[in-house]
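[Automated response] Your request has been received and processed.

Submitted sequence:
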Amino acid sequence: MLSLVISDFHGSVEILDPLEKMINESDLDVIFFCGDIVKGHKRGNEWLAAKAENRTPNREKLGIITEKDEDIMYYKKFYDFLDRTNIKVFTIPGNMDAPESLYFETLWRLKKKNINLAHELIYFMEDFALCGFGGEINEDEREDFFVLKYTRDETFFALRKLAYLKKDFVLLTHTPPVCTFDDGRGSTVVNEIIKRYKPKFLFCGHSHQQGKEKIEETIVVNPGALKNGNYATVDLKTGEVRLKSL
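Generated structure:
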């Protein structure tokens, strides 16, 4: 079963034509997307500035209000594209895919037949199960408007059903574990998830760094940022990982 693993699109619509050409020339069975469809610069900058200035971030800034239309446009273009491939897609939100309400409402409203939201859900494929948890996983900070940040407790509660799986499974996270290619953005919470639940594969993004590494018995793959033309293919049966660029 050949899978395409992609992450961190960040509104780079110019990459869709070469991506479509690659998909059409490949014999893919499934596509996994590890989050960050939109740019979210206004929200993200306000979040960081407010933290630096020790103040409450302002939701009513004009740029943040108008950025909503841009976000919806990117969601629609990206999901329209993926749906047209007629390949089953599993997706989770990235840390920039905020507000949480807009992300979920837009996806549900679009009603794409090939797009499956994997965040906090479990799906069953031929020989594998699939589960996902998006956003930025961290110890104790929660935010769902300016960026998506989920705490350790929330993450482990959402993934608790993995303990009952009796077959190999793929886990999608946006946040990488602490590893050789995390670029300082890895979370030890993800390392603990690997140790506790032992997924066969963990696909992630966020660091924009391509890489593969075995942690415990889990094959961890970051395809790199799609906005830079990076992606990975993974054979779910043989475990072969190929890191590629368009």
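Summary generated for your ticket: The radius of gyration is 17 Å. The chain has one domain: 2-245.
If you did not submit this request, please reply to this message.
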